[in-house]
Amino acid sequence: MKNDPRLITKALRRHINGTLIVVLSLVFLQTVSAVQAETVLKKASFVPQWLPQAQFAGYMVALEKGFYREVGLDLTLMVGGPGKPPFVLLGSGEATFCTDWLSNGIEKRASGHRVVNLAQVVQRSALMLVAKKKSGIEHPRDLNGKNVGLWAGQFYLQPMAFFRKYDIKVNIIPNYSSVSIFLKGGVDAMSAMWYNEYHTILNSGLNSDDLSLFFFSRVGLNFPEDGIYCLEETFRADPGLCERFVRASLEGWLYAFDNQEEAIQIVMKHAEAAHTGTNKAHQRWMLARMKDLIIPDEDKSSLGKLEPADYALVADILKDFRLIDAIPQFEDFYRGPR
């Protein structure tokens, strides 16, 4: 019985099966460990300079579609807006990345804040003056002596440069984003963003034929607006992190433009969570205008790039108006796509 071949065969099978199970278990554990190592995500946070709206659709889309995760980022999308200055949140470490206007970025850098521009997303200025033709305003010089509502801060510089360019003297009425003062006749003209307040004015009952539009970008005063920023120390410590964030963000913008209705659904999800009180029609208009501003003339080769000539224009006017003492070197300020 001791040498029964059948018993020997059974014993060998048990031994082989046991060994195989151990080997397969080890292979499985090694595979799981390798996958976990490859999917460890780097935490980062991003704050736009205003409340959720289609002005920032690309970032919301990149988050919802998993583009940030695909490049290894575990991104927290913060809600921007009043009381949340982007560069202050960068400096405190609450945000890794932010968006803000080029003019603001240059001013911060010139004042000693070590911020760097990683991508100039918006290539063309959307800021404009809207006037009523019935006020006798059809040309820039017709604004002379008129009441003009202007916003403060970074929105103030282009209108003032515009008035100086055309040697215009106006009565400036401080305004705080509402179009009511314009609609009720309190001012003859006012600041507006093409993708936002202008559409609100149209929806309030005025026709485009009733209005005169003065786009600063069309009179030699193009100030590229929303760019992506981080601290210089963040860029120096991990340039790959910065490059991946920019790449995923730009991919989000391209996806949003190619899939606008899906993008609007995503924007509305974030807008409703923040209780902004907007609607799909307004966000649809805004997203279409953002495409015009981010990819002017459908030229994708300029996507995310900051042109030295645009930088020089904005910086020179900041210096002319004594908002900065010296112009930061372009190479120190801009670290984005070339």
Structure explained in plain terms:
By secondary structure, this protein is α/β, with parallel strands linked by helices. It folds into 2 domains: 42-124 and 223-333, 3-Layer(aba) Sandwich (D-Maltodextrin-Binding Protein, domain 2), CATH 3.40.190; 127-218, D-Maltodextrin-Binding Protein, domain 2, CATH 3.40.190. It has helices spanning 5-38, 57-64, 67-70, 86-92, 102-110, 157-165, 180-183, 197-203, 232-237, 239-258, 260-273, 280-294, 308-320, 330-333; strands at residues 42-47, 73-77, 97-101, 115-119, 127-132, 147-150, 171-174, 189-193, 211-215, 226-231. A 5-stranded mixed beta sheet has the order 2-1-3-10-4, sandwiched between helices. The protein has a 5-stranded mixed beta sheet with strand order 7-6-8-5-9, with no helix packed on it. Helix 6 (157-165) links the parallel strand 6 and strand 7 (171-174). The radius of gyration is 27 Å and the shape is globular. Residues 20-29 and 31-37 have low confidence and may be disordered.
What keyword list fits this structure?
five-stranded mixed sheet, 10 strands, 338 residues, D-Maltodextrin-Binding Protein, domain 2, 2 domains, 14 helices, alpha/beta, globular
